[in-house]
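Sequence, structure tokens quoted for completeness.
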Amino acid sequence: MKIFNMDKHIALAVFTFFSFSTLLYSQIGDLKLLDWEPKSQMVVKETKILTPKYPVIDIHNHLGRGDADKYLEEMGKARVWKVVSLDGYSKDNVYKEHLKAMQKVSKDRILVFFSPDYDGIDEKGYGVKEAKKLEEAVRLGVRGLKIFKSLGLIAKDKYGKIIPVDDPRLDPIWAKCGELGIPVVIHVSDPVAFHTPTDKYNERYDELGAHPNWSWYGSTYSKEELLSQLYRVIAKHTNTTFISTHMGNLAGDLGRVAGWLEQYPNMYVDIDARISELGRQPYTARKFMIKYQDRVLFGTDTAPDAESYQVYYRFLETDDEYFDSRKSHHFQGRWMIYGINLPDEVLEKIYNKNALKILGMFKGVSD
């Protein structure tokens, strides 16, 4: 009789298990991880920061692909004083048209940086010729140089070889920037996750799943080699100011970035498109920003939009916890961020004073 009762209990347990499993499956179906968008149940303080404490200079943006008048309107809403457009391409003299279009919208509030063309890198005297072209661009109103991540990852010479960041044929261009007193905004490599396998260990699997062409795993140069190339250039050209984008292109390892700032006095960093990484290490990020308050610049890498800017302001100015940063740029990972509540004197430097200092180094073309 006891055995019979035990069998009944087992049967009941099995029935309950399968009933629960069926109910659970009916609720979630075949939900894929990439489609999972959990809504946080956290109840925490939410601070609305519509405008920053100090006028903002956005040192890192791209205005060549949209309505500049609309961008100017959004800048006004968000108290953005100036924006740097990095879309002044040398190739086909695009920079001339872009410069003309931006100056038509505002001569004071939109600055244009020049981006070199590598197509002729195999030709004799390439570097000198491109440096001369840069000089002419500065004469017309350009105020800096932009290096896209294509250098070291995509751009090739006529033999099909990827051009390294520290290719000596580029030396005249770096030197010319120092001579003209203009900064180099340089993006080398991508987040570490983009240089590792897109597998179950990759913390940005969702982002890479949506954009598989963003993966550089297996490229000619590893991320470490690309960073080594970059910092060899910075070390070699001490008279030129370099703004290493995306927090030194290594926002997830601020200890190493700090080491580079200590080693290279001509190097600065900007925070563009990386508050999603900085905001999940708020204690470390806050200490870093305060210690290197004279070397950090504000940038977004996101078309001017008041809501986008306001996420940056909330991150920099408040101690809010566990909030979504995707409107600051785009979805980058399955985590929330925390504000770092910077002191006012640090905020003012990051918002505009450091950028004004660098832009104030301008010497121009000597006739």
Q: What stands out?
A: The two ends are 109 Å apart (CA to CA). The first helix runs from residue 2 to 28. Residues 147 and 186 are 5 Å apart (CA to CA). Residues 2-32 form one domain.
